[in-house]
Amino acid sequence: MAKQFKPETLCVQAGWTPKKGEPRVLPIYQSTTFKYDTSEQMARLFDLEDSGYFYTRLQNPTNDAVAAKIAALEGGVAAMLTSSGQAANFYAIFNICQAGDHFVCSSAIYGGTFNLFGVTMKKLGIDVTFVTPDASEEEISAAFKPNTKALFGETVSNPSLEVLDIEKFARIAHNHGVPLIVDNTFPTPINCRPFEWGADIVVHSTTKYMDGHATSIGGCIVDSGNFDWDAHADKFPGLCTPDESYHGLTYTKAFGKGAYITKATAQLMRDLGSIQSPQNAFLLNLGLETLHLRMPQHCRNAQKVAEFLSKNEKVAWVNYCGLPDNKYYALAQKYMPNGSCGVISFGLKGGRDVSIKFMDSLEFIAIVTHVADARSCVLHPASHTHRQLTDEQLLEAGVRPDLIRLSVGIENAEDIIADIEQALNA
Ligand SMILES: Cc1ncc(COP(=O)(O)O)c(C=O)c1O
């Protein structure tokens, strides 16, 4: 679908464009395999000489339609769906890094990604240096080495809610001849399109706002098509030199701007699996059809809730980049003038015990290990995800013992505030 359409139209129309007599609604191609008439036809697919489907571990038409919609929303040239956001982040890096390589990453990222990069990928021989995203360009540049292959950051970090200076990060990455990869899960392309600010690859946990209804785990990788791999061919041999597992084909020569996603599909999905199930892709597509309606409501509600909390005497502190006194307000206004997301963190006077009592007193705002879906929910990391840590250890990990993460849903803001108010009074 042509890119001239506005995001609202892309949410509804992009990806699946049925031809005469085909279903109006994107079908679920619930099939592992695809039929061909001759052995030669199939052989050409295996040699990447023709495009087409042969086995759903690599590609599936339902997934490709949804990936195309996300690519259109982000303004990219190609995308692939993965089984989870974790898989998307792993593949985004592993597609251009191998044992002996290194990448630089903002320290303000989701804890699961931090562990994937800092522990699991190290076991594969891929090293990472974490940098404070607010550090100067010189300090961040100092983390780069000759074997550095990428720079990674989160547009709005989970759960610390720090806003990434995408232009600064893109400049640093490009000065070192490597791509900037941005996890754009929290704002979604409705609120921020990192490619417009210089990012090269975007990743998503589609599990969050994109699905929006907490039904399906999933991820997505989108390529802007802007990074010139061949200009840095020595750094990216996997893309710029022949792949012996495909009879000596070179991805950049054979696929041009589609090289990165084709390699991720043809090599990584082939060898490691982790594709999103077509059933989940179908549900994700339903979520995407209303993303442009839900995101503004999440942001409007979160703004009202953050303002309410910041005026309440029982609340010790509030972190939301839509509040003018927030450290990231100016960056948020620059990159996300229409709002960032619905996630707020705050603490109550009285600390951990008061936070627990508050959460137990909520009525419809539920305690769940999730963020970013239609229903308002809360999590207290000190009691849940980080419960084995002492208060001192929590602070070292950047999690205050009283921190409550509130994911503001799309219910009526007055009802959300009333539930919070009665729990504060309890
Ligand atoms: C910003 C961000 N990236 C990636 C992930 C991982 O996604 P998933 O849970 O879909 O594997 C999460 C999960 O919370 C996240 O918040």
Element-level helix/strand string: HHHEHEHEHEHEHEEHHHHHEHEHEEHEH
* Fraction of helical residues: 25-40%
**CATH fold-level topology of the largest domain:** Aspartate Aminotransferase, domain 2
**CATH class membership of the largest domain:** Alpha Beta
Largest sheet descriptor: 7 strands, mixed
Q: Gap between N and C termini, in Å?
A: 53 Å
* CATH H level, superfamily name of the largest domain: Type I PLP-dependent aspartate aminotransferase-like (Major domain)
List segments where confidence is low: pLDDT < 50 over at least 5 consecutive residues: none
Rg, rounded, reads 22 Å
Mean pLDDT: 95
| SS class | alpha/beta
The coarse overall form would be globular
Count up the domains.
Answer: 2
How many strands in all?
A: 12
CATH architecture verdict of the largest domain: 3-Layer(aba) Sandwich
Arrangement of strands in the largest sheet: 1-7-6-5-4-2-3
Bound molecules: pyridoxal-5'-phosphate
Question: What is the overall number of helices?
Answer: 17
Keywords: Lyase, Pyridoxal phosphate, Transferase
Cofactor: pyridoxal 5'-phosphate
Protein name: O-acetylhomoserine aminocarboxypropyltransferase/cysteine synthase
EC number: 4.4.1.11
